[in-house]
Each structure stands twice: as C-alpha cells, then as structure tokens.
Amino acid sequence: MDDLLQISRLTKQFGGLVAVSDVSFSVREGEILSIIGPNGAGKSTLFKLASSFLRPTAGEVRFRGERISGLAPHVVARRGVVRTFQETTIFKGMTVRENVIIAHQLRANASLLGYYFASSVARRDEAEFGRSADEILAFLGLDGIRNDPAVTLPHGHLRALGIAIGLATNPTVLLLDEPFAGMNHDETMRAVEIVLGVRRRGVTVLLVEHDMPAVMQISDRIVVLNFGEKIAEGTPAEIQQNQKVIEAYLGV
Ligand code: ADP
Ligand code: MG
Predict the structure, then answer these.
(1) Are 185 and 245 in the same domain?
(2) Nearest CA to ligand 1 atom 14
(3) Nearest CA to ligand 1 atom 23
(4) pTM, to two decimals
(5) 40 CA distance to ligand 2 middle (Å)
(6) Of 170, 201, 225, which residue constitutes the final position of a domain?
(7) Are residues 123 and 140 in the same domain?
(8) Which of 59, 140, 225, 227 could form an S-S bond across to 10 if both were Cys, CB 3.0 to 4.6 Å?
(9) How many angstroms does the Cα of residue 12 sit away from the middle of ligand 1?
(10) How confident is the prediction for the chain on average, in pLDDT?
(11) Which ranges of the chain have pLDDT less than 70?
(12) Same domain (yes/no): 95, 71
C-alpha cells in the first residue's frame, strides 16, 4: 500500500509545553490507522496538525507527496483530507438532508458558506446531489430522520450527521477525533460498523480514540503517543504485546 499522508518530524509547542514532539509516521492508502495514548499525550494536537487546523512548530505533513501543513483547513479539505464536522459546524436550522446536500459545496467553497447562503445552495443543488445525499443518509441509518431539522437531533445522530457531511465532501482521507466517545456498547458497535463501511467505500481513515476494544477491533495499525512522543507503532496484536505501551497506557 502507498503512503497517502506522511507525518514527518512534527513538533508542536504551546509556550514552553511540547505537546507533540518529533513524531513521524505514514498513513497508507485504504487503511484505518488509530492514534492512542493517555490523556494529554498530544493526540488531539497531532490530529489538528494532520488536518492543518494547527500549524506545526517544526516538521511537516505531506499528502500524496505535497506539503499540506501550513495551508488553510478548507484548502486541505478541498484536496481530500477532511475532518468530520463538529456539532458547532452543522447548520442547525437546516434539515439533516440539506446539511448533507450542501456538504458537496463545502469541499469547493468551505470558507464562503454563510448560513443564509447555505439554504439557498441546498435548494439549488437538490436535483444534482439529492440522490447521493440520500444514499449517504441510508448508509448511516439517518434516512428515517432526513427531513428533521438538525437542531432536534440527539447527540448520537448529530455525530452520525457529522460523518455524513464529511463523506458527502468525497474525502480521500477522513479524520475522526474520538468518534465513539460517550457511546454505549451498542452505539459503539454500530459506529464501528459505520467506520468499517467508510473504509469499504475506499476512504482512508485516521482516528483518535480512547475505546480500546473498538480500536483493537477496527484498526489496521496503531500509533501510540505518550507525553507527545511516539512510543510505538504496529498492528493491534503488536501494540497489545508491546511492553512500553502496556506500561504507559494499556496496563492501567
Ligand atoms: P490528548 O488529546 O492526547 O488528550 P492534547 O493534544 O489535547 O492531548 O494535549 C496535549 C497537551 O497540550 C496537554 O498538556 C494540553 O494541555 C496541551 N494543549 C493542547 N492544546 C493547547 C493549547 N491550545 N494551548 C496550550 N496548551 C495546549
Ligand atoms: Mg484529545
């Protein structure tokens, strides 16, 4: 498998604090790669560096060989490196389906979309993108509530809608930060199936996650951070037997 995303010697300092320290690894085309580690290990910071929401203090991120670190997040998203949408970026007054329809535009136009503009775009693009939006909604089990205003959705559905919006932008790499957080066992198992389904659609997945059973089930490879440094990288089986990882994280 080819390397899609290359993380090279990434360092991020916040004042005197080194949140991510000289971390290198690659994400291969078609894989699910998870980043794990204790609280404060630097996972979210690394995630934000990989999606260009943060600028590194040193090092770089390359996508298909081209440097993307330092570019604006919407420029990176347009190239195909997309992080799922947080609840705050979902258009709450629009329906579930309208949110997915306008996501096609987000890839081209992420920085320009205002709320008002968005709903007229959704109406305009209905004919062109309605079918693919419906297909994505069915895939995520949201078809029954597609005409509900996003504002009425419970937390779990909002999370699924965030993934739907991400998928509608037709990403090459989808980045997910703790997609299973706060979910019960059944919800997690469903979400695991969704992420596996995303990969079956040919999307490469980079995931930060705390839920170890889910991580071990879903990941092709895992990168382990501790105090900002990469302490291990390998398959779930390798990681579970790694002494450093057990001491720093899994053993507790
Ligand atoms: P994790 O996601 O693994 O729990 P984070 O990447 O969120 O860890 O944080 C790593 C370290 O960087 C922590 O010590 C955290 O307090 C610090 N940190 C994260 N973001 C900032 C920020 N914007 N400003 C200052 N310190 C930060
Ligand atoms: Mg975090």
Answers:
(1) yes
(2) 40
(3) 14
(4) 0.88
(5) 7
(6) 170
(7) yes
(8) 59
(9) 10
(10) 88
(11) 1, 85-89, 106-122, 252
(12) no
Give the ligand 1 atom nearest the CA of 225: 3
Q: Are residues 166 and 176 in the same domain?
A: no
Q: What angle do CA 105, 109, 111 make, to 5 degrees?
A: 130
Give the domain extent around 235. 1-80+172-252
Number of domains in the chain: 2
List, edge to edge, every strand of the sheet that includes 204-208: 81-83, 173-177, 204-208, 32-36, 221-226, 229-234
CA distance linking residue 197 with residue 1, whole number of Å: 19
* Cα 252 to averaged position of ligand 2 atoms, centre (Å): 18
- Domain end, chosen from 170, 203, 236, is at 170
Strand 32-36 versus strand 221-226 pairing type: parallel
Q: What is the pLDDT of residues 92-143, one digit of tens each?
A: 888 999 988 888 776 655 544 555 566 666 677 777 787 888 989 998 889 9
Do both 179 and 235 map to the same domain? yes
Tell me the ligand closest to 54's alpha carbon.
1
Is the CB of 45 inside a 6 Å radius of any atom of ligand 1? yes
Tokens standing for 145?
Answer: 């509530």
Structure-token match 């970026």, residue found:
89
> Is the ipTM reported for this complex over the cut 0.90?
yes
CB of 59 within 6 A of ligand 1: the answer is no
Same domain, 177 and 76: yes
- Is 153 near ligand 1, meaning CB less than 6 Å away? no
Q: Is the dihedral of CA 2, 235, 34, 224 positive or negative?
A: negative
- Say how many Å lie between the CA of residue 141 and the centre of ligand 1: 34
